[in-house]
């Protein structure tokens, strides 16, 4: 089994052919509140991003991988390591499963498990973290199921169209270092 491959999904590098997919997913305003996006991305900017995506995480401090179904090579989402800090050996994690038909099938959990193993065993990070609003119960369940713990809460941290939301800080330490 490959390091970035599980039973049902694989994590793969971005390809130039992913431009239309990135454009569609990044400009889906229904997820902007979760991704803290406030404006659309142009094809030009996304093309530049793809052209530089070959750079190493140690250089760019981030890596975005496509979540792809093994049996059909169908892209179903994205998973990111961001704010990679070499000195403190930590990185943030973000995940997107785009279509409703691919949700609640364990793909996000499998992708997160693969990414954690990659981060801990290949990149040798000490800790991974994420920030999730209190209203995002699905993401809270996903991350806590994978061993992330809520280590703090910022009150009224995120402004939404429905009012202010608390944001939970979650963290997972590398089990090899604990």
TrEMBL record:
<feature type="domain" description="N-acetyltransferase">
    <location>
        <begin position="9"/>
        <end position="171"/>
    </location>
</feature>
<keyword id="KW-0808">Transferase</keyword>
<dbReference type="GO" id="GO:0016747">
    <property type="term" value="F:acyltransferase activity, transferring groups other than amino-acyl groups"/>
</dbReference>
<dbReference type="InterPro" id="IPR016181">
    <property type="entry name" value="Acyl_CoA_acyltransferase"/>
</dbReference>
<dbReference type="InterPro" id="IPR000182">
    <property type="entry name" value="GNAT_dom"/>
</dbReference>
<protein>
    <submittedName>
        <fullName>GNAT family N-acetyltransferase</fullName>
    </submittedName>
</protein>
<dbReference type="Pfam" id="PF13302">
    <property type="entry name" value="Acetyltransf_3"/>
</dbReference>
